[in-house]
Amino acid sequence: MKFGKLFLIPLLLMGLVMAVDPISFNYLNASLANANCRLAMATSVVDSLVQASPNSTYMGQYLTPLQSDISNLQNYADSGDTASYGSYMSSTFDPDLQALNAAVAQWKKNESQSLSNDTRQTLRTDYSQYFAAYQACDLSTLKQYGLAKVAWYEGILNAGQNRSAMFGSAGLDNSAMSQVLQEAQSQIVAPLQNSIESADNASQIRSALQEYCLYDGCKHGPNFHLTIQFEIARVTASLDRAQNILNASNSSVVAADLAQAQTDLDSANSLISSINGSAYQSGQSQQLAGYLNDATKNIDQALMQGRQQGGPFGNGRGRGFGNGTRGGGNYTPGGQGRYRNITPGGYDNYTPGEYGNNTQNGVSFPYARVRPGQPNNSSVQ
Known about the structure:
Order of helices and strands: HHHHHHHHH
Strand content: under 5%
Helix content: 55-70%
Structural class: mainly alpha
Distance between the termini: 3 Å
Number of helices: 9
Shape: elongated
Radius of gyration: 27 Å
Mean pLDDT: 76
Low-confidence stretches: 1-22, 311-381
Oligomer: single chain
């Protein structure tokens, strides 16, 4: 039997994820609850091995680090430290669970042939009960986690609407930005919520979690690439506003900058259209970030030229130009340029892929169907 790993979505410090909020704690708590499902199953299995063979008390040493791991994960959850939580889960908890898997496999090799038929039957019966309890726990916590993802997405879209309204107040046409957010709701968030709420088993939820990504990371479903789409709409609105402000300019420099900004936006639109909801391939996110960086730089340069000209373009101090470009794209503080980390880089990819078919994602208990005098050919994995 292999346990599915429940990854955590780190909260992105960018414009459409404004700050760590209570939703992040729902994620942490749901992820921790799922980890506790696996620990409970592992504990039951080890206890049954010890009861079956008194010489197996050493197996308890594999539970100690897992119990410590849960305590540390709880501390990260309590403090809302999403980055440390996710790192600890993948670098410590999962390997400790794998160590237990290896120990159980070795136990089966060393001890199972010395067990009586009655003991083997007891192990099979106990395992069936433990596995049923695990499945129920897994389903409950996975649904909790899935709904937390929906709530996180909705929070992002609400933050996006606030930013769209802010840009509208600054003088930009925000209709395209609002349209992007509406499409994200109808194409990603609503169908994801419906799939989770109607799911009858954990595999259906896991499938849904891998099929609807607001950013990037879904191998088998649409990736909306929200940050890029929102930014293309925002920078396009910034260019339109700059063109309206500078339409009386006779400067060839201004015209060239605006033309290059349009070319950059055309390239960004062409690339995101060709991606067509697929996950990013190598270098594509960097290309998109480069186009948007260049477009923003050229718009800023054109506005600066207009300021220097004075007259209808301002009084030399930039009045009348608003903040349509500057301040709008710094979604990742500390980066090189506005869009250095514009893509989440797999932040949506928090489901492990093939649950139950990847030994790196859980623990196998090979004695599940031990038969007298036969190797374990269990289909219960």
